[in-house]
Every structure is written in structure tokens, then in C-alpha cells.
Design goal:
With about 250 residues, the protein is of the alpha/beta class. It has a single domain, classed as NAD(P)-binding Rossmann-like Domain (Rossmann fold, 3-Layer(aba) Sandwich). It has 9 helices and 9 strands. A 7-stranded parallel sheet has the order 3-2-1-4-5-6-9, with helices on both faces. The chain has a two-stranded parallel ribbon with strand order 7-8. The radius of gyration is 18 Å and the shape is globular. Bound molecules: NADP nicotinamide-adenine-dinucleotide phosphate (NAP). The site of NADP nicotinamide-adenine-dinucleotide phosphate has 30 residues, from helix 1, helix 4 and helix 6.
């Protein structure tokens, strides 16, 4: 039975990955800060699908915005006795406001989650995956990482880094049994916008995605060997249209 480690598993897209991967027969390692919520989710998975043959789903409380928290998860990813077959780099936070008037500590946590945590965890996971010649690293970046919008300068820059890192690693992995894929959703109904108070469209807007749709598209794209997953037809069409326009125009 394959094992998947998911960061930011207590809510939104991470919780949707956890539910879907458990249903598909994965043993889970669930990472986030809120331990009682992680326990609840693991309990729900045991109730619905029973305990995996290899042992119960694991919960690993960690603050990935800190070096200490990341070290705990890196150590778990390097544990050759209980190998992780799929890493889902998903934990993230939003923000509201311009770069200069947003709290510097909040921006720093957003940056650490979107860049350093993705870099450190991916690096730790790939050592064993490449040696075993199997595995996958999915990084939940954002549509903002493909097409800059008004999502916050630092958020957009961090997501651009995540998309670029994932694409370069995917190129380096070509010819191995290991995959890397960036997941680039647009506005998705989760807790993120409520938590950060970020700007988003009316609830009735057709631009909204559901977390389950993001996960379904990602896992389908992974099975097809793709290195980038953009859920939602509207977003794919927008990207195709923008790609066809002169860069100077779309940048504005
Ligand atoms: N929702 C959208 O519109 C949207 C669009 C594009 C991309 N994304 C990306 O999708 C990913 C998931 O976001 P979401 O929308 O599902 O948000 P969400 O519902 O707010 O969930 C965020 C998850 O990240 C965890 N988290 C936050 N800070 C953390 C920290 N310091 N250490 C460890 N875990 C932490 C949270 O758990 P705890 O609070 O328990 O730690 C929670 O499980 C993010 O990377 C986000 O940037 C979201």
C-alpha cells in the first residue's frame, strides 16, 4: 500500500487530497499545525476505510513556516523504513494588501511556506524516491504562479518560484520512475480567503473551483504523466489566450 504525505491536510485542498488518496488505498501522513484537527481527520479515514494494512494513518503536527517544524517532516520523509511514495506540498496562507502595508511576519510565514518548505521537503523526499525509482511530488502552487494578478506581490512571487522549481525538477527526473507536478488552481472554495480576508469574486462567480475538482484534475493529470495541472476549463482557456498575446500587453 503506497504512503502519501500531505502538508496542510486539515482544511481545503489538502483535506480533499487526504480524503481522495485514502479512498484510493493510500496510507496517509497528515501534516499541519492543528493536532486535534489532524486526529479528527485520521479518525474519519479509519472509520470510513478501516486502518491500512501497514498500520494506522499518521499525524505529524508541524509548523512549516519554522526550521524546527520543517526538520520534523524532512526527517519523516527520509525514513527509509517507512518510505513515502507521494509528497503533496500544499500548506499555504493568503494575505491581503500591498507588500509594504502587510505585516512583515505574516508575509514571511507565507514566503517560508511557499518557498523554503516546498524546497526542503521536496529535496528530502526525492532522495529516497529516486533511489527506489518510484514516487511523485505534487506541489500545490497557484494559477497566480502562471499568470500574475492582484494576489499579493509576495504570494505571486512565491507561487512563481514553486511552479518553476517543480518544472525544472520534472525535467531533471525525465527517464526515472519519479514524477514532479505543479498544481495551479485559481479561486477555490476553502478556508484560505476567509482566514486571510483576501479579495475574491462573488460566491456566484463561475471562476470558483471546488477542492475536490482540483484534486480530481491533479490526479488525472499525474496519471497522464503531465508536469503541470490547471483545473477548470475557464482557467485553461484564459491561459491559452494569454499565451497567444504579446508579453508586454499581458504584463500590464
Ligand atoms: N483557495 C484558493 O483559492 C487557492 C488558489 C490557488 C492556490 N491555493 C493554494 O492551495 C494551498 C492550500 O490552500 P487552501 O486554499 O486549501 O487553504 P486552507 O483551506 O486555508 O488550508 C490551508 C492548510 O495549510 C495549513 N497551514 C497553514 N499554515 C501552516 C503552517 N505554518 N504550517 C503547517 N501547515 C500550515 C492549514 O492547517 P493549520 O492551520 O492546522 O496549520 C491548512 O491545513 C495553498 O498553498 C494555497 O496557496 C489556494
Amino acid at each position: 500500500m503506497p504512503t502519501a504525505l500531505i502538508t496542510g491536510a486539515t482544511a481545503g485542498i489538502g483535506a480533499a487530497f487526504a480524503r481522495r488518496l485514502a479512498a484510493d488505498g493510500h496510507r496517509l501522513v497528515l501534516v499541519a499545525r492543528d493536532e486535534p484537527r489532524l486526529d479528527d481527520l485520521a479518525g474519519e479515514m479509519h472509520e470510513r476505510h478501516g486502518a491500512p494494512a501497514e498500520g494506522k494513518h499518521e499525524v505529524l503536527p508541524a509548523d512549516l513556516a519554522t526550521a524546527e517544524g520543517r526538520a520534523v517532516v524532512e526527517q519523516r520523509l527520509r525514513d527509509g523504513a517507512a518510505p513515502v511514495d507521494m509528497l503533496v506540498n500544499n500548506a499555504g496562507i493568503g494575505s491581503v494588501g500591498t507588500f509594504w502595508d502587510t505585516d512583515a511576519e505574516a508575509l514571511n510565514a507565507q514566503f517560508e511556506l511557499g518557498t523554503t518548505a516546498v524546497f526542503r521537503l521536496t529535496r528530502a523526499a526525492l532522495e529516497g524516491m529516486v533511489e527506489r525509482d518510484r514516487g511523485a511530488v505534487l506541489t500545490v502552487a497557484s494559477f497566480a504562479g502562471l499568470l500574475a494578478g492582484r494576489n499579493g506581490a509576495s504570494y505571486t512571487a512565491a507561487k512563481t518560484y514553486a511552479v518553476s522549481l517543480s518544472a525544472e525538477i520534472a525535467a531533471e527526473l525525465r527517464g526515472t520512475g519519479v514524477q514532479a507536478m505543479a498544481v495551479c488552481p485559481g479561486w477555490t472554495h476553502t478556508e484560505l480567503h476567509q482566514r486571510s480576508g483576501s479579495d475574491c469574486p462573488e460566491d456566484s462567480s463561475a471562476w470558483w473551483l471546488e477542492a475536490d475538482e482540483v484534486v480530481d484534475t491533479a490526479l488525472r493529470d499525474l496519471a497522464r504523466g503531465r508536469t503541470r495541472s490547471v483545473p477548470g476549463r475557464r482557467y485553461r482557456l484564459l491561459l491559452a489566450a494569454v499565451d497567444a498575446m504579446p508579453h508586454a500587453f499581458t504584463r500590464r
